[in-house]
Amino acid sequence: MDVVIWSRIQFAMTAAYHWLFVPLTLGLALVMAVMETLYVVKKDEFWKKAAQFWMKLFAINFAVGIATGIILEFEFGTNWSNYSWFVGDMFGAPLAIEGILAFFMEATFFAVMFFGWKKVSPRFHLASTWLTGIGATISAYWILVANGWMQNPVGTTFNPDTVRSEMASAAAFWEVVTNPVAVSKFCHSVTSGWVTGGIFVVGVSAWYLLKNRHLEFARKSMLVGAIVGLVGSGAVMLSGDSSGVHAAEFQPMKLAAAEGLMDGGNGAAFTIVPGIQVPHMLSLLATHDWNGFVPGINDILKGYTDKDGNWVPSVAEKMKRGRTALDALEVYRKTDDPMVKELARTTYLEPNVQYMGYGHLEKPEDVVPPVAVVFWAFRFMIGLGMLIALVLLLALIAIWKDKLGSWKWLLWAAIVCIPLAYLTGQCGWIVAEVGRQPWTIQGLLPVNVAISSLSAGAVKTTFFVFLAVFALFLVIEIRILLRAIRKGPEVELFEA
Amino acid sequence: MTYAFLQNYWWCLIALLGSLLVALMFVQGANLHLGNRALSDTQKRMILNSTGRKWELTFTTLVTFGGAFFASFPLFYSTSFGGAYWVWILLLITFVFQAVAYEFQNKKGNLLGVKGFRIALIVNGVLAPFLVGTAVGTFFTGSPFTVNKLAIADPSAPVISTWGSGWHGLEALGQYHAVLLGCALVFLCGILGALYALNNIDDEAIATQMRRTVRMSIFPFLLMLLPWLVILLVRPGYAVDASGVVSMERFKYLHNLLQMPAVLVMLLAGVVLVLYAIWKGGFTASRKGIWFAMPGTVLVVMAVFFLAGFNGTAYYPSCTDLQSSLTLRNSSSSYFTLKVMSWVSLLIPFVVAYIAYAWHAMDRKKITPEEIQGDGNKY
After folding, report:
1. Which residue(s) pair with B239 in the sheet?
2. What is the pLDDT of residues B250-296, one digit of tens each?
3. Rounded to two decimals, what is the model's pTM?
4. Could you tell me if A480 and A410 lie in one domain?
5. For chain A, how many structural domains are there in total?
6. N or C: chain B end with fewer CB closer than 10 Å?
7. Cis peptide before A438, with omega less than 30 degrees from 0?
8. DSSP string spanning A175-194?
9. Which domain holds residue A168?
10. Å from B158 to nearest chain A CA?
11. pLDDT digit string (tens) for A150-176?
């Protein structure tokens, strides 16, 4: 395998691994902030103890999230050298802002939250708990602004003098920050974290109930967890809907792959699983129009007229125009004749620059992502997400109707849903990222030109090093987490 | 605001973040004492918990330093990170282990045991300053890379920045001048760590050990730093003219120092502050040395960055292809990006203020053996 594949595998592994820790951070942050608020408002020591217990689990999980976040940041440079030059003008800014605005907030107030119970006032402590979670959430926003731009590169233009995408005006930054793809991605990711945090709390509480331990703590925690999780589930569905519309608009190939749609059309049907279809549903979801046109994979390859009546060229045509842009770039940079330079830029480069990335492709089929992977990941995400929402709802009903004692099956289901929540999140990112292959930046930069000039062997080596480190940390993290859960609230976690 | 002004402004911010990172690596320096046989286990736990309340600040500064460098001078990020691969990966791995070592080391079921994670922290305590120092050292010695932006149009070899050495960064270990700076930084962080622990922990035995460390580190620190400085001032440097052409200039960095008297003052003031802090911590009963050592370190490191990048100097020179050298002018982000980010940077004082406030609130009560043996949250 070549360096492109190894770089992708390494980055995918790091990102997927990072996303094992982030959702619980986002979700538990909200749960414990709510509990601590109840403590401060109601002056009830119970909520303090409850918040402290979940905070302990939060801290165990938080460390690995931080550790893997920095790897992602560095890997942009170490493994995606061309990418980091090509996008640095736009991508670096959100990353720097993330550091300045979010990470310091998280780091500073995490320390106050974790160690400051006896050192600062209850109000300052409560503020710190909220600020830790808000910091984590703000950080998610900025990194998803960067990710959203890769999916839908707004606000930038290609500059042949510097050979990169640049922000063309200060106002363009606003366009980047309010990119609709980034906004819905942010809502979708953060609220899916609330679902993960919610089901985690509900599941752990369910285990205590099954074991007949810490009953009051478990019931009350479960209530908070179920509410947080359900609010999250509702928001995930809404933002998922707008993610679908955006995919249809900006990344039709991703949508076609997620649907396994070879040939599209008007009033396209939604495939629940192969063989079972809901007529018109896909058109409705993707375009919010009963008869809206949804292109299939073949339509995109051959060219089609989109729902607004505009002709979208075939991939072969885009490749041709992309090569024209690349050739024009070469002429532009090599010639000393200002007339030729101007001609290359205005006549050949600029009209074709939006397809420049296609010029790097070998054949039209290169733009088709692995359909089966995306198709099934999409189905697992939706199916499992709905299942989890149902379990959360039933948990709420059970608490309300006082049925927790008799609905043992629900308690088991809640426990099973914890790993399923992680699987759901992973599936979501597979749809989002595998679904946009081969692009690092949609239409502009495919993976094979985004890399660093390294040998496959070097990246392979670091991949296995990271794999070993990640596996080790995961085992340790789960062991410590399970031990802390087994011991339950108000129990010393440390070795004597 | 002109483009050049913004580029210079961002170089100042990079210098500031880089110097804060070095100053905050007192965490790494203090952690070296986790292997100190003269300290009891409780005392080691006190040190661990003392740095444990600060390590995230150091770590976040590293992340922000990387992010800000990426944002303002992306060609450095793509050239150095993608080229000096092994150096950055090694640095990364030591920091990754550091990040989990605090939370995991005193928990049951952690597989590696207390000792394993302490070793990880000690390795980070040596390697982090050493690698950062050596990397900054290459700002003056140069690295073997070429930059060809047109490469992106060539499908067979599309990468713009390519590294000339198969060692991918480890070749810097053969540049004794860069290595001297790396070694100097290890001892500097050792001193900073000792001064910090002296201030932050209420324990006489630890205080005695820390003072001893400060006294013992002076000689090796100066033995590394002074030769580095002398060689820097006599070595030829990478000058860049107004049209962007890079050439070698004899005594370039000495010229920079003399032509930028403010930098000379910064450097001298910084050195004096650090030496004063060493004297205070090592030879008097005062515990406040750290409050002089950190600003001193910031001044010295900023001066080093200014020597590397200002006054028509290529801050990340290529020793194999002079014209590929990175300068503040040819490696920065666009005018609008720098401008937008400059507005954001106005929030930095606010961030520093709340960090200082939280730090003050947390450190009002010094770390005591009772806190480590009590039942509150701790590492």
Report:
1. B247, B313
2. 999 999 999 999 999 999 999 999 999 999 999 999 999 999 999 99
3. 0.95
4. yes
5. 2
6. N
7. yes
8. HHHT-HHHHHHHHHHHHHHH
9. 3-249+372-487
10. 6
11. 999 999 999 999 999 998 887 888 999
